[in-house]
Amino acid sequence: MMERFRAFFTKVISPVAHLLIRLGVSPDAVTLVGTLGVSAGALVFFPQGKLLTGVLVITAFVFSDLLDGYMARTTGRTSKFGAFWDSTLDRVADGAIFIGLALYFAWEDPSRLYLVLSLVCLLMGSVTSYARSRGETLGFNVKVGIAERADRLVAILVLTGLGAIFDVPVLMYVALWGLAIASTVTVVQRVWVVRKQALAEVALPSPHE
């Protein structure tokens, strides 16, 4: 869903990207700084109960995911390592957000239920990304699912932030329930489509027959 807004945000961040290029900053460095910023925002502020501060810090750094890609394309510095680096650090950043929330529910607002839901979101979000990556490596089309990475990030950050601003924590609870369910459904969808394509390949007649 959020892919439709990518062109708009790319226009917004392009001046910053060109400034960094002129300063000689590499896309891989931007990826690293963005991941460190997101992780710090989640792991430093969420466990202390400073949810809004954490959301604002994470949001400030999360746009590095668009920034590094734009810089790489503009400078012609796209590479297999860059793609690997970006994908790997995305998993670190995503994991940090839900670990931070899990620690919040362990320390600041004790709740076993939402601690577990945070961990479910962490696990299924990672499996969602892995299922697509592994499926595409095997040559299958795995572009299905109701919970893409951008959708998950927007949902948890917006609802957590609004809940903190208006003191309505139920918004964050709704986000966690929704993401836990949507991520699980997405994993099932991706397993299903890969299974269908794999069975179809097996059913194809051999060219030597």
Helix content: over 70%
Compute the separation of the termini in Å: 44 Å
Helices and strands, in order, run as: HHHHHHHH
What is the mean pLDDT? 92
Radius of gyration: 19 Å
Instruction: Count the DSSP helices.
Output: 8
CATH class: Mainly Alpha
User: What's the CATH architecture name?
Assistant: Up-down Bundle
Topology of this structure?
Blueprint: H1 6-22, H2 27-45, H3 51-62, H4 64-75, H5 80-107, H6 112-137, H7 149-165, H8 170-203
Could you explain the architecture of this structure?
The termini are far apart. The protein has eight helices and no strands. It is flat, with a radius of gyration of 19 Å. The mean pLDDT is 92. Helix 2 runs antiparallel to helix 3 (51-62), helix 2 runs antiparallel to helix 4 (64-75) and helix 7 runs antiparallel to helix 8. The chain has a single domain (2-203), classed as Four Helix Bundle (Hemerythrin (Met), subunit A), CATH 1.20.120. With 209 residues, the chain is mostly helical.
Give the gist of this structure:
With 209 residues, the chain is mostly helical.
